[in-house]
Amino acid sequence: MHWYVIIARMTTSLLPDFRLDGKVALVTGASSGIGSRLAEGFAAAGATVVLAARREDRLQELAERIRARGSRAATVALDVTDPAAIATAFERISTSEGVVDVLVNNAGIAEPALFLKTSARSRDATMATNFTAAWDVSAEAARRLIAAGRPGSIINITSVLGIGVGVGYSAYASSKAALAQLTRSMAIEFVRHRIRVNALAPGWFVTEMNEEYFGTSAGQDYLKKIPPGRAGQLDELLGPALLLASDAGSYVNGVILPVDGAHHVALV
Ligand SMILES: NC(=O)c1ccc[n+]([C@@H]2O[C@H](COP(=O)([O-])OP(=O)(O)OC[C@H]3O[C@@H](n4cnc5c(N)ncnc54)[C@H](OP(=O)(O)O)[C@@H]3O)[C@@H](O)[C@H]2O)c1
């Protein structure tokens, strides 16, 4: 064997393992935006992905795209704010795919409004989707992992607005800050079960949630003013997500990882 092949093999064995072969990864809110892209990436990394959201037609289309690339994908219709539906979904996944090893709590809504203009309905819906649902889905996933004696990884999608705040985002920012604290709380309680719990805190990524605003000149001007000077590309979330999901991040736990081009550290 040539010396350069030996060195290449030694170098390769030093690299951490970012792959997810043999793992089942459930992504909530996989019907669009960030969830959709993370699901595609996890499938490319070897996971069997389970796509969950309310719009089943979107999930089916994505599952077909993933399968066409030779990866494994299943779908489950799920309104994450419905506890009975969560239990039913996990039963179905358990029968068809087995235990969920990696959970991404990505489903979320944003209804920006000034504090005094935010209705009780909007506040409660935001908390129910962005916080309480992640609590309930995590509890279901963790109970099943613990019962099976398997390690796992839970990734919550918080936000740069769970770290700092912005005008018009009192309900949203509060829900994401609560989710960050839940992330840390679950991390210290589940560590003895080998279940890691971390969060990604994205900055701005253009998705259906905000594309209307970022399509305006005001939205474009705003992006020029933030430290990266642009929105993130969805693919830029994939590496950080794989770190948290895979064995490459086996000692990373209780972390809220901003992926925002330094937006969260800037006083602008
Ligand atoms: N885009 C950004 O700049 C940004 C920044 C920071 C954090 N985030 C967070 O990233 C996550 C994904 O957002 P996105 O930007 O990708 O927006 P998006 O394209 O609007 O996606 C939101 C997803 O959440 C799902 N969802 C909403 N309510 C749900 C419910 N009750 N049950 C199940 N699924 C539900 C939607 O699916 P259905 O409607 O089909 O159910 C959809 O797939 C959210 O948690 C958001 O807060 C986004």
What is the annotated CATH architecture? 3-Layer(aba) Sandwich
CATH class: Alpha Beta
| Distinct compounds present | NADP nicotinamide-adenine-dinucleotide phosphate
What overall form do the CA principal axes indicate?
A: globular
- The overall pLDDT average reads 96
Through-space gap between termini: 57 Å
Within the largest sheet, what's the order of strands? 3-2-1-4-5-6-7
H and E string = HEHEHEHEHEHEHHHE
Proportion of helical residues = 40-55%
Beta content: 5-15%
Low-confidence stretches: none
Number of helices: 9
What structural category do the secondary elements indicate? alpha/beta
Query: What is the H level of CATH, i.e. the homologous superfamily?
Result: NAD(P)-binding Rossmann-like Domain
Summarize this structure briefly.
The protein is an alpha/beta fold and 268 residues long.
What does it look like?
Helix 6 links the parallel strand 5 and strand 6. The longest helix has 29 residues, at 120-148. This protein has helices at 3-14, 33-44, 56-68, 83-96, 120-148, 170-190, 211-214, 217-225, 238-245, and strands at residues 24-28, 48-53, 72-77, 102-105, 152-157, 195-202, 256-259. It has a seven-stranded parallel beta sheet, sandwiched between helices. The radius of gyration is 19 Å and the shape is globular. Helix content is 46%, strand content 15%. The chain has one domain (20-265): Rossmann fold (3-Layer(aba) Sandwich). It contains nine helices and seven strands; from the N terminus they run H-E-H-E-H-E-H-E-H-E-H-E-H-H-H-E. NADP nicotinamide-adenine-dinucleotide phosphate binds at residues 28-29, 31-35, 53-55, 78-81, 106-110, 129, 157, 159, 202, 204-205, 207-210.
